Here is the input.
Amino acid sequence: MVREIVTYPSEVLTTPTQSVDVVDREVRDLVKDMFETMYHAEGVGLAANQIGVPLRVMVIDTTPKEDAPNLKLVLINPEIVSSEGRVKYKEGCLSFPGLTVEVERAEKVKVRALNEHGEEIEVNLEGFPAIVFQHELDHLNGITFIDRLKGWRRRIALERYRKILKGVQRSA
Ligand code: NI
Here is the structure.
């Protein structure tokens, strides 16, 4: 089922999510809804709190993006084991429709998580998938890409987003 995506500012986006105790049918149903919602919105990653569910669950599928590797992942209770390098990338976010901001993140990350069957997995991500993962991990920690900007950069991005929201209201 396609769910409604929560947009900023909303408390569920700025509150850290909770670990999943048991990967059961309910969690798998959530994952299914998250993929459907992400594809419907033409996104490449989605965190559970973006559909209002405060659990540490994310889905990623970079396949639709032409210059990125075909990669589809379900990551439950994810954590970064190690990281290296720095890279800047202009990111978008389904919870900030219309806004893009340049964020600096690690270039490579080694990730440990549970998959949708409750099995522990370890994956090495590099480049675009690594960026998507770190963006979604921030969501699970109650952090949005705006919080990765400092000082005037953050103020300008928020001002741009406010203008986008006003424009949406005018045209609605
Ligand atoms: Ni996002």
User: Anything to note?
Assistant: The chain has three helices and five strands. The chain has one domain: 11-171. The two ends are 25 Å apart (CA to CA). Helices lie at 25-40, 128-140, 151-171.
